[in-house]
Design goal:
Blueprint (H helix, E strand, L loop, with lengths): L4 H9 L7 H10 L8 E3 L16 E2 L2 H7 L6 E4 L1 H10 L6 H4 L3 E4 L11 H18 L3
Parallel strand pairs: 3-4
Antiparallel strand pairs: 1-2
Length: 138
């Protein structure tokens, strides 16, 4: 409940972050944002990414995902752990076109990432809204 992901996305894309989960997902989709965790399955005692058993990680099938969603223009990571896992477990299995997409690590929205407050995280995450607006048909 203290993770800032939904409040940030709600602020950026203009929806209520307190909507039911399915409606928040729909709001992302309606704004042309896909959301997927790098790990399909893993062992993680507790909620901290630092506690993930690295040998237990089974990544999601991004190759198929990108084939089914060919209009994706950029990849944004919610923190260092997501980017590291993607680059280590997924990237080499993707097409050259996908590997050439812009990829940017954003500050983690986790409350464990207390180095930045909400306002600073929101400002960094504005790059997503800016990318969507730049890609919108005029």
């Amino acid at each position: 409940p203290r993770n800032a992901f939904w409040p940030i996305m709600g602020e950026l894309l203009g929806f209520d972050a307190k909507l039911p989960y399915a409606e928040r997902q729909k709001s992302l989709k309606n704004n042309r944002v896909a959301l997927w965790d790098v790990a399909h399955r893993c062992i993680r005692p507790g909620s901290l990414d630092a506690n993930i058993d690295r040998d237990s990680i089974e990544p999601n099938d991004f190759a198929t995902f990108f084939q089914e969603h060919p209009d994706i223009q950029a990849i944004f990571f919610n923190g260092t752990a997501a980017e590291t896992l993607f680059r280590r477990l997924v990237l080499s299995h993707l097409s050259e076109r996908i590997r050439a997409l812009p990829m940017l690590r954003l500050p983690s929205t986790s409350p464990a990432h207390a180095a930045r407050d909400f306002a600073a995280k929101l400002e960094a995450w504005r790059v997503i809204r800016d990318a969507l607006q730049a890609d919108s048909p005029a």
